[in-house]
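Researcher: Going back to the complex we discussed earlier. I've cleaned up the inputs and rechecked each line, so this should be the final set. Can you rerun the prediction on the complete assembly and write out the structure?
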Amino acid sequence: MNLEKHKATPKGNALHALRRRLSDPTNVLQSWDPTLVNPCTWFHVTCDSTNHVIRLDLGNSNISGTLGPELGQLQHLQYLELYKNNIGGKIPNELGNLKNLVGMDLYGNRFEGEIPKSFAGLKSLRFLRLNNNNLTGSIPRELTALSNLKVLDVSDNDLCGTIPVDGPFAMFSMPSYANNKRLNGPELKGLVPYDFGC
Amino acid sequence: MERLSSCRLFTVFIAFHVLFVHQSKGLNSEGQCLLDIKSSLGDKFNHLANWNPNDPTPCGWKGVNCTTIDAYTPVVQSLNLSSMNLSGFLSPKIGGLVHLTTLDLSHNGLSRNIPKEIGYCSSLEILNLNDNAFEAQIPKELGRLSCLTTLNIVNNRLSGPLPDEIGNLSSLSQLLAYSNNISGSLPSSLWNLKRLTSFRAGQNLLTGSLPSSIASCESLEYLGLAQNELTGEIPREIGKLNNLRELILWENQLSGLIPEELSNCTSLSTLALYDNKLVGRIPKELGSLMNLTKLYLYRNQLNGTIPKEFGNLSFAEQIDFSENMLTGEIPVELSKIKGLTLLYLFENQLTGVIPVELTSLKNLSKLDLSINFLTGPIPMGFQYLTKLIMFQLFDNSLSGSIPQKLGAYSPLWVLDLSDNQLMGRIPNHLCRNSSLIFLNLGLNKLTGKIPSGITNCKSLVQLLLAGNSLIGSLPSDLCKLVNLSAVELGQNKFSGPIPPEIGNCRSLQRLHLSYNNFTSELPREIGNLSRLAIFNVSSNSLTGRIPPEIFNCRMLQRLDLSRNRFTGRLPAEVGALSQLELLKLSDNNLSGAIPPALGNLLRLTELQMGGNSFNGNIPAELGALSSLQIALNLSYNNLSGAIPSELGNIVLLENLVLNNNHLSGEIPGSFANLSSLLGCNFSYNDLTGPIPSLPRLDNMAVSSFIANNGLCGGPIGGCNPTPSLSLQPDAKDKGTRLGKVVAIVAAVIGGVSLVLIVVILYFMRRPVEIVAPLQEKPTTARVSDIYFSPKEGFTFQDLLEATDNFDESFIVGRGACGTVYKAVLPSGHVIAVKKLASNREGNNNVDNSFRAEILTLGNIRHRNIVKLYGFCNHQGSNLLLYEYMSRGSLGELLHGASCNLDWRTRFLIALGAAQGSYGYIAPEYAYTMKVTEKCDIYSYGVVLLELLTGKTPVQPLDQGGDLVTWVRNYIRNQSLSPGILDAGLNQQDETTVSHMIIVLKIALICTSMSPSERPTMPEVVSMLIESNRRESHFDTSPSHDTS
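Model: Rerun complete. Updated structure for the full complex:
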């Protein structure tokens, strides 16, 4: 057990923890040096002028492994771009802590488990693309609270139940939900119960 | 126990009947046990080759040691197979070796579980199973080994809890279990082990808290539980462990205060409590721990000041309080700790000056006071510390100059003084001992040139001097530093050319030279920097062409050449930079065509090319930039021709800036696919025609479209009054239209209850009058315009009052695209108001589905569709007004909990409705927007299927998503059998069932995929009547008819 410590701020810790969870055959994360005081010089990481991480661009990077709760510490993160990789496991609930997140692109991976209800905390979220994964369960009704959400894509998963109709869901069209074998049509409240559960 | 091995039986036998010690033939029983054990081991290096079955005893075998009992009998006393690259598993036969006192199988690759039979080895004193791949739970039978003094199971894959029975091991002195997956809380029996001196179970999944009974574990010297999930407070009783030397509890979830009673643990040498949730002050009493050498309290939530009593820790070597919330000044008393080598106080809220006295700490090698509020100068004395290798004071408010002899007397590795107010020059001796790796003096007020002592520092890897007032040229000597990977000189006053020697920095990955006064051309030697990932020369005065060689830097991720005076073309070779994420060329004098090869940059997230003189067309290839997200900016160029519709493929794009060019033609309809677009600018071009329904059009300012050649619609309005684009989209607009139509279908399916209102009304009620047709040009609808049948005579205000401004309590139903309210008008007339989803965000899909529904229902002047009274728009919401049907809908009756419609009723509904049901949209309608008589038949067929199957028109997507597909699938898989019929229908009577099957066939014809195959409605009616005549003979006389 190593008692010596590396000097890194929590932001760097969060990203370094991410690196430890990921397998990176093409070395896109090679520059992620945990001994640096902040991760702003790491490749695929963008900081604002006050050295807060605002973007993580690792789409299409041939990385695998899982995500951990540490990512939830990147309080200033605006864009989490991890699309088209081979990342599996559950989507950490802690991602719901990213209050400044504008875009979350996790599509084209092997994520499983449910869409976290905690995503209701993503108050700034405009773009949520989770398509082409192995997500199960129903679409959390909590997401109807995401008043800024403009784009949703959960197609090509294994979701079930019905599609919410409230809040931003009123404007999403059917291609957002395509290819979910157990997903029924839109939720019809009131007279006729069309929600068959899941 | 229940299945004792013969080996075990035999050895028990031996224990009581010594006369049978020698077997008459060959190997004794313990030898036999060992052979059995060997048989479950993989031994690829043949370490156990001399385990010969023909030996009388195993005592000469490798790893086996014997002793004798009763002066004659050799028995196996120890078995040591450590580090033999063994694989396989440990056989339960191990339980036969009852005289074993030492078993060492460590450092092999043994897997599976630890056999519970090991509990029979009752003489065991030392059990080393560490560094294998043992898994599953730790057997509770271990608790029988009452002689055990050492149990080492470190570095396996053991899971489950530590068994309670461990507490029976009264002789145990060493319990080593770290690096497993052991879970659960620590058994309370554990703390009864009076002889336990070392308990190490770090890096497991242990939960629960440390109990106060820990105090009874009185011999404990080493307690290591780091990297678990322990919670609760550290019990103050821990202070009774006066033999404790090392307390290692880092990376848990421990909370509360650090107990001051720890100061009673006078033997304590290492205290590691970092990375927990400890709060409160650091107890000053800890200053009396005279034997303490390492004190790690970092990464907690400690507050208060650093106690001056810590100056009494005269044996301390390392003190780390960083990443807390400590306030006040750094106590001068720390300078009394002569042996201190490491002092980390960074990331706190410390104030005041750095005590000059700290410079008397002659052994100090690592000092980090960064990220605090320290003021004043850097004490000059630090420059004389001969052991100082890491010196970091960044992000404070330090002023004055940097001690100029820093580095002269010590082998400095790391110096980071960035983000302060330091003035004066960069010291020349920082690399005197040729060991400097990392130098960051950025964001200060330093002046002068980079001294030669730096430019000749061969060990240097990172040189970060950005944000100062440094002058001079980029020293060509710098390029002799072969280890250099990062050079940041931006925001200074450097001038002159970038020397060609830069090409020698073969390790260079980051080169930031922006915001200086660099002049002349970029040297082509940049192309030699094969590892260069970030190159930023923005905002200088560089001239000439962009050297094509730069595109040999295949690792480039960010290339920023913006705000210079580059001329000439952008070489097509730029397309070879497959790793490029950011390309900024804006505000230069570049000309020529935009190379289509830019479309190869599949990782590009931002492309800035504005403010140049690029001409020609925008290459359609840019549509392939699938990662482009932040911006595509081609503004202020001389681009002409049409905007390629392929740009509509860049679905992640958020900003599209094309203004101030000479672009002509229409804005492609494909731009409706740019679902992520937050901003755009098309102004000052020669664009014509209607603005397509951009997804966020309402967020786009009018100024984004002005100064064109007849651009109209959208926010600027003014398109001529022919039916608008959104209702008659042009042929190029397929993708968008599909999206819209799907929304329409969703809306209509969502409104199924309403359609069924019509149907049941037709069936149940009086004839209704024909209401005047609706406006045929819904595009002329304006906010709060309201259209009614002229006969009705109620106002919009009436609607508001009747629904209490659309209060929840008036809701009678919800659909995918809207909510249905019941409104009782002043006249007593009851209507249903369907409020389509809010349009306040300028959601065109909903708007279009609204208009489509109006068009569909309004244009078909079928006499049985009069239930639609009108429509209006209120505060961005579209309202549809229908006749209210108080008896509920067919849907409710059919699909609700109490389904009691018999077949006769259903058939009569079907027959009665045969002259009109709309709303269920046929596929060709979805694609062509043409409503034909054939669509009506399809819709009717869906109603028939509903009546027959009892299923809703919305079906799980994997079963086709709709009832028609579901029925087709069912028939394809299981033939046309009665199983498809609603189980709620009485299927006892054969003629009824065959009637239903005939009607099902009629429904299938009606829902035929090809419109030409569908019958007309009169044909359907006659088929139904004929089917009834032949099979069921229901009375179809006009008592249920409506006309």
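Model: Worth noting: Residues 7 and 35 of chain A are 5 Å apart (CA to CA).
Researcher: Good, that matches what I expected from the previous run.
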